[in-house]
Amino acid sequence: MQPPTRVIGILSGKGGVGKTTTSANLSVALSELNHRTLAVDGNLAFPNLALHFGILNVPADLQNVLEEKLDVEDVAIRYRDSKLKILQTSLRYKNTSYDNLAKVIQSVLDYDYVLLDCAPGGYMDPMKAFLASCTDVLLITTPDYPSASAVAKIARMAREQKVRVLGVILNRVQNKKFELSKADIQKILDEKVICSIPEDPMVPESISARMPVVAYAPTSPAGRKYLELARFIAAEAPMPEETLLQKIIAWFQRFF
Ligand SMILES: Nc1ncnc2c1ncn2[C@@H]1O[C@H](COP(=O)(O)OP(=O)(O)O)[C@@H](O)[C@H]1O
Ligand SMILES: [Mg+2]
Description:
CATH superfamily: P-loop containing nucleotide triphosphate hydrolases
Bound molecules: adenosine-5'-diphosphate, magnesium ion
Distance between the termini: 54 Å
CATH class: Alpha Beta
Oligomer: single chain
Shape: globular
């Protein structure tokens, strides 16, 4: 019997912290590990997931599916020759409701993983629809108070709605003295930080090249982390502990 599809929501309180970058990279990494993966752009207001893959012209979109005009498989586009498909959202302004999102996402059964790139925070309808669509969530924050305090509310909402929190991804880490530490974040959110992704210039470079960094520069610091994260999520390997050398380098980075 085929295992059930895991629907992982990529959530944050604030915008611009790395949800779409994480959605794009994790979905490529999971597909490279041979998992059938669907990446869904759940940000109906300001979508941009497809742009990370160089998909510019979208003949059909998630809005058509939410309006029950098309099915997921009529719309989703295969990424290159891989096991990944992308369910893109129109870049044009369309006033589509999130009401059908959970029904649509939960009807998708032919994949091992569905990754839902969500719009940032808020208590209102989109967040409820995101949480109702997911089996699991990953919380994304940067190492600062505004981002951590906002995602703390999302963590709480996820727990209240009994959605499994896989953990926190701490993104754009520079190991500066002024940054919140992993321990600080765990305390604020009451959730475990499962992965720290460094500030990496290859990330914006890869976005400009319209290719997720795991494919564009797989051995870059961020590329490696996304692959480790995919292995961890697919329960193939624990997240590797930082080596002593990495800890020493991180300590010195605080002063530069
Ligand atoms: N690890 C990283 N290193 C460097 N830049 C990053 C990293 N993660 C994200 N970014 C930059 O941050 C910007 C915002 O990220 P994005 O994934 O669009 O955030 P969100 O979806 O949460 O709004 C991106 O354009 C990207 O260039
Ligand atoms: Mg985004």
